[in-house]
Design a protein that fits this description.
Strand order of the largest sheet: 1-10-9-2-5-7-6-8
Number of strands: 10
Distance between the termini: 15 Å
Mean pLDDT: 82
Radius of gyration: 21 Å
Order of helices and strands: EEEEHEHEEHHEHEHEH
Length: 306
């Protein structure tokens, strides 16, 4: 189900009914999307193209309050967001005609109150604002994109990662680490067996206190907070689609079969598609791209729902 509306309007979703909010909103001052403008107070424009970072952050807090309202008390909120540079000119950061995907709209930044070329730390500012608004920040995940889009810059290093913040409403929440454990390498398994043989008689805590490796979990290791997941090419006319493998990890660890997963910026429908494939119920909100999301999610058989 996808609601065609602005996130700054009341969401037609029941209070505390959603198990996970998983989303990637428009980043600040990077690209102009093919969607209508919104009106927020006295300001009219596209969310993400505000005059100043402070405006973007205050607007983010508005829709995040709705996310808080619909999220279950034991639910999890994953927020993917990337940074921007002052005066960078738009999509992809500093770029020239060869630095962005063909057909991607170019956006000219307005004058903001920071030195040109200064990294704005937008993800950090948003995360701090959300924490001050009551959210608990449990993880700052680095999404490392080994095949990240090249940049034309010569006076700094190219960007290879984005942030995914994991928030909760309370200290105790649903989280299934076993669902996303990674297989241990043969080297780690061999090392663990050697440790066991040479330390026979010690309990796991004693081995750990001696600086030795603790016993590996039978289902694999904790994947950690750096996720190396490549972006995937797509023929769809949407320039900010995230890989389904990335969404899958977030859905699996934060929900069970039958739970509701919400993406308030569902765009091309990747989150909804993955949720439905994993026997969850996907709900989306977006002002545009409905033909794309409808086509992608419509291929999934309805009997997959639990």
């Amino acid at each position: 189900m996808i609601y065609k509306q602005s996130v700054f309007e009341p969401w037609p979703i029941e209070r505390e009914s959603v198990q996970a909010v998983i989303t990637s909103p428009p980043y600040f001052a990077l690209r102009k999307y093919d969607i209508p403008d919104v009106i927020i107070g006295d300001w009219k424009g596209q969310y993400g193209l505000e005059p100043q970072p402070s405006d973007y952050i205050s607007h983010t807090l508005l829709w995040a309050k709705e996310a808080w309202r619909v999220l279950r008390n034991d639910g999890v909120f994953f927020l993917n967001i990337a940074d921007s540079y002052a005066g960078s000119g738009g999509a992809g950061g500093d770029y020239n005609s060869g630095g962005i995907r063909e057909g991607q709209p170019k956006y000219k930044q307005s004058k903001i109150n920071y030195p040109s070329k200064c990294q704005l730390l937008i993800p950090h500012r948003v995360a701090i604002a959300l924490v001050e608004d009551g959210w608990i920040l449990r993880n700052t995940i680095v999404w490392y994109k080994s095949n990240a889009m090249p940049e034309s810059v010569t006076d700094r290093f190219s960007k290879k990662y984005e942030y995914i913040f994991m928030f909760s409403k309370q200290e105790k929440y649903y989280f299934d680490l076993d669902a996303i454990r990674e297989k241990c390498s043969s080297v780690n398994k061999s090392r663990n067996r050697n440790n066991e043989a040479s330390n026979n008689g010690y309990i796991a805590e004693d081995r750990f206190s001696k600086g030795e490796r603790p016993e590996q979990h039978p289902l694999g290791k904790n994947p950690g907070d750096v996720w190396q997941i490549s972006t995937k090419p797509s023929s769809e006319k949407h320039y900010a689609m995230w890989p389904e493998m990335l969404v899958e990890r977030m859905v699996k660890c934060s929900t069970k079969a039958g739970d509701i997963v919400l993406d308030p910026f569902c765009g091309s429908g990747s989150t909804l598609k993955v949720a439905e494939q994993l026997y969850r119920k996907g709900i989306g909100i977006d002002l545009g791209y409905h033909e794309i999301s409808k086509r992608r999610t419509g291929k999934i058989q309805k009997e997959m729902f639990v």
